[in-house]
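Issue: copy button drops trailing tokens. Both records pasted manually instead:
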Amino acid sequence: MRTRTPLSRLAAGTALIAMALTGCSVTTEDSGAEVAVGAGSIKKDDALVGQTIVVGSKDFTENIVFGHITMLALKAAGANVIDKTNIKGSVNVRKGLLAGEVDVYWEYTGTAWITYLNHTDPVPDSRQQYDAVVKEDKEKNQVVWGAIAPANNTYAMAVRAEKAKEWNLRTLSDLAAFAKSKPTDATFCLESEFAGRNDGWPGMTKTYAMNVPKSNIRTVDTGVVYTETKKGESCNFGEVFTTDGRISNLDLVVLEDDKKFFPIYNPALTVNGATAAKYPNLTNILEPITAKLDDETIRKLNERVDVKGEPVAQVAADWLKEEGFIA
């Protein structure tokens, strides 16, 4: 999941937050002004008909897609929506939600637990972490969480598919054994942040007892990790985000974190407390949609936007129609 920087490092002044909350961007403005919403499995909700809901999102593709899915679903339920997707800075959209300037946006359980609720250690079980976040965020901030999606947008290590097959690699334990038996081939491309984080490279190598020389590690920008891993020249393995569309597009294989080291980042709709009280069925409307959002589905949606350049609003609408939520 994106944006795991501590809250204290991301604090912004009121003026900056106000600017960030203007929302929208090249991604969303180029996405098509209006998408027709016909009747599907989402039915009109009496409490929402004619009411206005402000939908926010963070400033990366996946979260913007979630925002557009939410806007279309709420339109189908009879609401009017204001598009505040692509707010700059994760903390800014969160502050917007707490202030009531944003009614809903999608957050990640790991981000809430570690960054907003200030816990040091993640909860290794997905359901237990979600339950803990839901309880504490409601008690401290009156934030209401919808159901969590099956997807887990966390860190992972990937290798190109042909090498995963050739080297018989399926898990990070397999990778650790491979690094010992074939150290010259155990080369890695990492982001600078991941390379120094306790929940990144240092913690991963400690957990899996991997001893990789610095000469086998190349620190590069996020996008370069994917392309270099695919080339297999400067590195055979790369640090990726599990729901990134480039994984499928570049035919990379994600290695299973079999020791459950990486924090869990399940996405879910979050709702301002006053908004949730006024529209108690709001999270229920999104629940069937949420249940469909697994890693592979989100990768494909992200790929259509990031790799194929399709308008995000159209991608969201197409998927909702394919699943029968709208017509």
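Record 2 (pasted manually too):
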Amino acid sequence: MPSTVKDIVKTIRKELSALYSSHEAFQMAWLIFEHLYGWSKTELLLNDNTKLTDSDYLFVQKALERLKKREPIQYILGKTEFYGLPIRVNPSVLIPRPETEELVEWIIQSAWESGSMAPAILDIGTGSGCIAIALAKALPNASVFAWDVSEEALKTASDNAQINGVKVNFEQKDILSPALLNIEHKWDIIVSNPPYVRESEKKLIQPHVLDYEPHLALFVKDSDPLIFYRAITLFAQKKLTQQGTLFFEINSAFGEEVKKLLTEYGFDKIELRHDLSGKCRMVKVRKPLV
């Protein structure tokens, strides 16, 4: 029988208590009701005596069963928020992380500070398109391009661009292909959040990530953990405009290694930045004048 909102929240907290903290379980409950009714957290509390319809009650029960299997709430609802924008997600794309919002903020600030309000931007390994779309939204005069090797990811990214009313040029490309070095186009900003988790780190990854998010977008072999950074750095060396900038999100364990790699390819004035949790997570470098 359908229950009240208060009953449902209590049940979700109880059923998920072995997997998540009470706060995390409440957050998931709120996201479900936000999805169903558009409620804020305050509205959720004010409507705690509201009775659910049969269909809504069934939706909540199915969502709870999936949550008990550690499936991410974002995949269950098919959406998340990134940089204040709605982003659709599914198992073909990674769920955007808060630290990536920090990278986007850094790129936008750098563009404003340089006075470049109409830059050509390339996002390599775009996934859901969250970086490219957020940049296109914040810099409406920019020409934004986004590549990914996954056809399914590009379909999701294209849908997200349409939802957010921005123009992004999506293309299926593999950055590891040497043929890309023959492209004539050049960009003022190149950004990438490539796969950077080593295979040996799988044992440290939470089940809701390891079991559900795409390994193609997460993992690299221990024998060559910088494979994508090397390919992108070489590409950026040839395809950035003079004084163009390259931004990376990185594995916090490889800050110095990425810095050394960039130096070997002739880049200088390398900036490493920590995320809000204190981990070395982002890199910015400007192409030197020749």
